[in-house]
Design a protein that fits this description.
Layout (H helix, E strand, L loop, with lengths): L3 H4 L3 E5 L12 H7 L4 E4 L11 H14 L2 E6 L18 H17 L4 E3 L11 H21 L3 E5 L14 H15 L4 E6 H6 L4 H8 L3 E6 L15 H10 L5 E4 L24
Parallel strand pairs: 1-2, 1-8, 2-3, 3-4, 4-5, 5-6, 6-7, 7-8
Length: 281
C-alpha cells in the first residue's frame, strides 16, 4: 500500500492505452471518470494510421470532452502495435513522422494537451547509428517547434533494454543528452525528459539518483511496479519513498499511471490510490 501522505502531494493522470483496454478506446475516458480520474494520457491511438480522418479525430475529442476528462499527453505515431518503438530516427519513416506532426499537435492543441511524446525509434540493421541520430535531431527539432507553437512541451523517453533491446535510449543520461541537443538546436527549451520509473528500474538505475540529478529536466513522470509492470504495491519499488523524493526535488507535474492491472481488471487496480486523490489537481 502506498503512503497516502506522499501520494497526496501529487496529481495523477491515467494512461488509457494500457489501462481499461478491456473496453473500446472511445469508452475508456468515461471508465476513467467513473473510477474518479479527471486526467488521462494516450500512446498514439490510431494504430498504423498516422493521418486519421477528421471524423476519427472528432470522435476521440468527443469521448474526452463528454467524459469530462482532460487529455494531458499523447504520443506521436509510435507503431507500438507492431513492435516498433517510435518513428523519429527511422529513415524509412521520415515523411510519415513529419506528416504526423501537425496531426498530433493539432489534436493536442484542440484538447488543451500540454505534452507530446516522441519515441526515438529502434536501431535499424544496416543503417549507421549516426545517420539515425542526425535524422532524429532534425525530426525532434521540428516536433519541438510545432509543440512550442501550441504551448506544449516535447517529451523524450528512455525505455528498458529488456523489453526494447534495439532502442538506443535505455538510460536517463542518454535521454537527457538528446533533450539537451534538441533544446540547443531550437533555442526553445521545451524539450523535456519523460522519466518513466518503471523503465529506469528495469534498466537497473538508481531511481533516487536520477531524481536528484535530473528532476529539473522532467517534463513528465510515469510509474509501474517492477518487474511485472503492474500497479504499485505488487512489486519491488517503494513508491512512498519515490513520491516523497519527487516532492523534495520540486517536481510538481503529473504522474502517469502506465501499468497493467495485475488481475486483468483495471477498475480493481486503483486500491493503492484513495479515490479522493485520483482527480487531477
Amino acid at each position: 500500500m502506498t503512503d497516502v501522505t506522499a501520494a497526496a502531494k501529487h496529481s495523477f493522470t491515467i494512461n488509457l492505452s494500457i489501462l481499461f483496454t478491456e473496453l473500446p478506446l472511445l469508452e475508456r475516458p468515461a471508465a476513467a471518470a467513473a473510477a474518479g480520474f479527471t486526467a488521462a494520457e494516450l500512446w498514439w491511438p490510431f494504430g498504423e494510421n498516422h493521418t486519421p480522418s477528421q471524423a476519427e479525430l472528432d470522435e476521440l475529442r468527443k469521448a474526452f470532452t463528454d467524459a469530462g476528462v482532460q487529455l494531458t499527453g499523447i504520443n506521436f505515431v509510435d507503431d507500438l502495435t507492431k513492435g516498433a518503438r517510435g518513428t523519429v530516427s527511422l529513415p524509412a519513416e521520415r515523411e510519415r513522422f513529419r506528416e504526423n506532426i501537425p496531426v498530433t499537435v493539432g489534436l493536442a492543441e484542440s484538447l488543451g494537451t500540454k505534452a507530446v511524446n516522441a519515441l526515438y525509434g529502434n536501431r535499424v540493421a544496416g543503417v549507421d547509428p549516426a545517420v539515425q541520430d542526425e535524422l532524429a535531431l532534425e525530426n525532434l527539432a521540428l516536433a519541438a517547434q510545432a509543440a512550442h507553437a501550441a504551448g506544449a512541451v516535447l517529451l523524450i523517453e528512455a525505455l528498458n533494454k529488456v523489453e526494447s533491446p534495439d532502442y538506443p535510449l535505455v538510460s536517463a543520461e542518454a535521454a537527457v543528452a538528446v533533450v539537451d541537443k534538441v533544446n540547443a538546436a531550437t533555442g526553445l527549451g521545451n524539450a523535456k525528459f519523460l522519466c518513466d520509473l518503471y523503465h529506469l528500474a528495469r534498466n537497473g538505475e538508481d531511481l533516487a539518483a536520477v531524481i536528484d540529478a535530473y528532476a529539473d529536466r522532467f517534463g513528465h513522470v510515469q510509474i509501474a511496479d517492477v518487474p511485472a509492470r503492474n500497479e504499485p504495491g505488487t512489486g519491488e519499488l517503494d513508491f512512498e519513498d519515490l513520491f516523497a523524493r519527487l516532492s523534495a526535488a520540486g517536481y510538481t507535474g503529473r504522474i502517469g499511471l502506465e501499468y497493467k492491472p495485475s488481475n486483468g481488471v483495471s477498475a480493481d487496480s486503483f486500491g493503492w490510490l484513495p479515490r479522493e486523490l485520483r482527480a487531477a489537481k
